[in-house]
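Course assignment 3, question 2. Fill in each field.
Student: A.L.
Task: Predict the tertiary structure for the chain below.
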Amino acid sequence: MEGIAVSNIIKSFLKEIKINYKVILLFSSFFFLFDSIILQSVFYILIGSAILLESTKLEFRNIVIHDFIIWFLLLIWGGIAIGNSFSTYIGFMHYVCIILSPFFIFLIFNNLNIKKEYLNLFFDILIISGVILSIISIYVIIVSGFNLKLRLTSIWSHYNLLAAYLMILFMFCVSFLIHENKRSKKFFYSVSLFLIILGLFLTQTRGVWLSTIVSFGIFFIKRPKVIVPFISVLLIILVLFFDVINERVLTVVNFGKDVSSLGRLQAWMASWILFMENPIFGHGFDAFRNMMENVFPVYFVVVTHAHNTYLQILLELGLVGFLLYFSFFIKAFIYSFKYEKNEKSKDLQKFYDGLQLSFIGLIIAFIFEPYFTFLSAVTYLIWILISVSYLLRFRTL
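Answer field:
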């Protein structure tokens, strides 16, 4: 009898527990500090699954999954890609990180009762994570005796992927700064902006530098007042680090003589040739690493992937999988521009501007690195942007 009583007490206690998913999601923003894609995958899948389980009480009637058919087809197509992969285990891990976890991110953001104040706080925490990462890079460069030839990753593993992460946070910093009225917040965004762009500079990632400049170049047409803060920061960086910037720019000018650039070009060629061997279904996850020697026996530099987001997805998922996967990015990009202009949208303009700047920058950055990747949690930040764009489109915040 006592055992039954204890059991009933435990059941009653569990029923009373209310999980605050929004607080947990805020906390998860700090996971980006450590760039642990596996840890974040487990987190998003657990939280997303918990939301789904709770919704079973209402027979899923309160669950919103935009473009459900496309998601269903993509999840199935990803399963086919696992079967095509050289290693089922590796294929499954890539599937979880590149397709399954993004599905749960999409589900989480579009099924929590998120308001603009919460969204603002969420991005503020992300910006703080970017500031911390940048400060670590600045500390390393100081300890090294200001050896500006170092390409710094802070505590991430890949400087090119860190650069994209900082680029996105830089975009939102600029947008939030422009639209902020409180002096204290303006000071916070100004300091964050300067530190993040320093961290971005120290990665010495030419593709992301170019992406940032092109993005703002296009954005100037829409928001001319962005020119002043952007040019000011750019000039400060240029004056302080002219020699390093000049050296990196010359590698682009002398593309045919730069080994790194030639290696990237060779990876692009190999990826396209391999894609054309099976353009519909692709070759499965991590295909480039396993098939690269079928095209070129020797490469100018050590490469393990296509060095291009578009080619990487084409190679692994084929044309069908590519169209399914990128349909979300394309729609999110369109949604960031396509909104009804009214008093409510004015309050959300800083999010729209941040999304637009980020998406434009990513469209360029995708040419140079695989940013939908198993290698880094930057994949999840991009999917958070996609999810937020859908959220702004279909929900009243």
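Instructor remarks: The CA atoms of residues 86 and 278 lie 15 Å apart. The two ends are 50 Å apart (CA to CA).
Grade: pending
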